[in-house]
From TrEMBL, chain A:
Topology versus the membrane: Multi-pass membrane protein
Protein name per Swiss-Prot or TrEMBL: Putative spermidine/putrescine transport system permease protein
Subcellular location: Cell inner membrane; Cell membrane
Keyword check for Cell membrane: yes
Stretches assigned to the ABC transmembrane type-1 domain: 76-275
Taxonomy of the source species: Bacteria, Bacillati, Actinomycetota, Actinomycetes, Streptosporangiales
From TrEMBL, chain B:
Organism: Streptosporangium album
Membrane topology: Multi-pass membrane protein
Domain called ABC transmembrane type-1: residue spans: 75-281
GO biological process, one term: transmembrane transport
Compartmental location: Cell membrane
Record bears the keyword Transport: yes
Membrane-traversing stretches: 20-46, 81-101, 113-135, 155-180, 209-232, 262-284
One GO cellular component, as annotated: plasma membrane
InterPro entries named in the record: MetI-like (IPR000515), MetI-like_sf (IPR035906)
Family recorded in the similarity comment: Belongs to the binding-protein-dependent transport system permease family. CysTW subfamily.
Keywords assigned by UniProt, alphabetized: Cell membrane, Membrane, Transmembrane, Transmembrane helix, Transport
Name of this protein: Putative spermidine/putrescine transport system permease protein
């Protein structure tokens, strides 16, 4: 620093001259980006509310809620999301604590496991699942295994989707929780709590989870966004979740499908904004 | 982190209950929910079932078939689209990120980063319909500028690339902003004081430091575009040859007798490509952290 400061007398002339050109290209870049990212949002909104025959009307948004199958598909997606969040947290949190407290050698294993789903695209994952689901009737018709296969494919609540979504969510949940755990000294917290006589469930629910609140919230939001937007697996296994419904309804009404798309974008936008503001709040308070 | 583990091990008797038994449910779950389908996929990709006798036999016929003719064309189509999206997305994303990073307005930076976080996650069916409403056959922009008569169509390779950029560019911004932040102003000053031009600074300092992050971003974008299915399905149906669309078609039935496992073989091809891509990405990610502290 000391070496740089004295020379600073001359550079201002240069740096005064320089920013002018960058400012032009910066303006162009930002302008083009703004056009590219904002125009589709505005145009599709206009597409949804304006129609040459009927003119301007917001009816389409009302039509969404009364459309056949809307409520059912949304409820199914929300139920799947809630279950997925509960299962993925119940599985990952203890495992990640274990890695930090008692089994450090398991850490690379856990990292690999939680990265693998990124390598396997959902469409290939679903071909694998489809193959397994077709095994049942062929070889194992009389076994409890077959009964399980049938049970997890229940139309009203397809557990098989929860299984798939938990796997897909692992990388995101792992990353969020890892960041949260990095920020607190788990070892000391647990040791202190245990020395004071707290039971393991007590440690878990009264010490660890409250300290990880924002990390858990961000993991949950990401999982929620993932499940609400997931199309591939649900569609190929033949379940009517929300994204699958959007595509079905588009066959009959283009305007409606664009309107639903905008709404679902807004929903995910809100979710992620809540998430990012929650994250920054934690950062500033800690 | 190692100290955490250290204390816990010393304190063994009391912390033992967490041992690795707490990780067991996750390991079992992944083995069942992830392991079984993947093994089934591998097994299926290398077997053919005789429709008459219902006997399965090991063979590499599926794999060979999946790398021939129409199937190969879809695989190459996906690789081509992903490569175009990855390279263009990385370049444009880097320019956008640089514009934001060098801006004096904090609010601009914050809002672009937040928007990037949202848009990078915006894919699937809704993305396709937002673009159909904009530039589709009866889209608003298409009508306003009469693009339809000028021969414009969204439902082809370049249309798909244009749409995929909508989540790829923001993803690149998220990847490359930390790297651009890591370029210290002192380096630029030092280069300037030594008489280097802006181009020489980028050529010898800026770009070499950024390369790992840039390549990492390219790889990430490639992976995202390569795996995408819902957007393409909702937008173009099967008019653009893509391996994901081909797998879905094969799964839902229209394949020749004896070729049932072709979807599995194609899936395996995809996993191999995606695996290679990740094998490039992970070491790069480690390297990129070297300069950027």
């Amino acid at each position: 620093m000391a070496a740089v400061t004295p020379i600073l007398d001359t550079p201002p002339a240069v740096s005064h001259d320089r920013p002018r050109r960058p400012r032009v290209w910066r303006g162009v870049v930002l302008g083009v980006a703004a056009l590219y990212f904002l125009v589709p949002l505005g145009a599709s909104l206009w597409f949804a509310v304006y129609n040459e025959q009927r003119g301007f009307s917001l009816d389409v948004f009302w039509k969404i809620f009364t459309a056949e199958g809307f409520g059912k598909s949304v409820l199914l997606s929300l139920a799947l999301a809630a279950t997925t969040i509960a299962v993925v947290l119940a599985l990952t949190l203890p495992a990640m604590l274990a890695v930090r407290l008692g089994a450090p050698r398991l850490r690379p294993v856990l990292e690999v496991i939680c990265t693998l789903p990124l390598v396997v695209p959902p469409i290939t994952f679903v071909t694998g699942i489809g193959t397994v689901l077709r095994w049942g009737p062929d070889y194992l018709a009389a076994t409890p295994f077959w009964a399980t296969l049938i049970a997890i494919q229940n139309e009203t609540f397809p557990v098989v989707l929860v299984l798939a979504y938990v796997v897909l969510a692992l990388p995101f949940v792992h990353r969020s929780l890892d960041a949260g755990l990095r920020a607190i000294d788990v070892g000391t917290l647990v040791e202190a709590a245990r020395n004071l006589g707290a039971s393991w469930p007590h440690v878990m629910f009264r010490v660890i989870i409250p300290n990880l609140r924002s990390a858990i919230a961000s993991a949950s939001f990401l999982t929620l966004a993932l499940v609400l937007g997931e199309y591939t697996i649900a569609a190929l296994l033949g379940y009517g979740t929300f994204p699958v419904w959007i595509l079905t309804v588009s066959g009959s009404d283009g305007q409606l499908s664009v309107a639903v798309s905008i709404l679902s974008l807004l929903l995910i936008w809100l979710l992620l904004l809540t998430l990012s503001s929650g994250g920054s709040k934690r950062r500033s308070s800690s | 982190m190692t100290t955490d583990a250290g204390t816990a091990v010393r304190d063994g008797g009391r912390t033992r209950p967490t041992g690795w038994t707490a990780a067991l449910p996750l390991l079992v779950f992944v083995a069942l929910a992830f392991g079984i389908p993947v093994v089934a996929l591998l097994f299926g990709a290398f077997t053919v079932r005789d429709p008459a006798t219902k006997v399965s036999a090991f063979t590499t016929a599926n794999m060979t078939e999946s790398l021939r003719g129409n199937y190969l064309a879809t695989l190459l189509g996906s690789v081509k689209l992903s490569a175009v999206v990855a390279v263009l997305g990385a370049v444009l994303g880097t320019f956008l990120a640089q514009a934001v990073v060098t801006s004096r307005f904090r609010a601009l930076r914050e809002s672009v980063l937040t928007a990037s976080g949202v848009l990078a996650n915006f894919g699937g069916v809704p993305l396709a319909f937002v673009w159909v409403g904009t530039l589709g056959n009866s889209g608003v922009i298409t009508n306003v500028f009469g693009l339809g008569d000028a021969g414009w169509s969204l439902y082809n390779f370049w249309g798909l690339a244009l749409v995929y950029m909508y989540f790829s560019v923001p993803l690149m911004v998220l990847v490359v902003v930390p790297a651009l932040d890591g370029l210290k102003p002192q380096w630029r000053e030092a280069a300037g004081n030594s008489g280097a031009t802006a181009w020489q600074y980028w050529r010898h300092v800026g770009i070499p430091v950024l390369v790992p992050s840039l390549l990492g971003g390219v790889v990430l974008l490639f992976g995202g575009a390569f795996a995408a299915y819902a957007t393409a399905k909702a937008m173009v149906g099967s008019t653009v040859p893509l391996v994901t669309l081909q797998i879905a078609d094969a799964l839902t039935g229209d394949v020749l007798i004896g070729h049932e496992n072709i979807a599995l073989a194609l899936s395996l091809d995809m996993i191999v490509v995606a695996g290679l891509v990740m094998a490039v990405y992970l070491p790069l990610q480690k390297r990129s952290s070297r300069w950027l502290r």
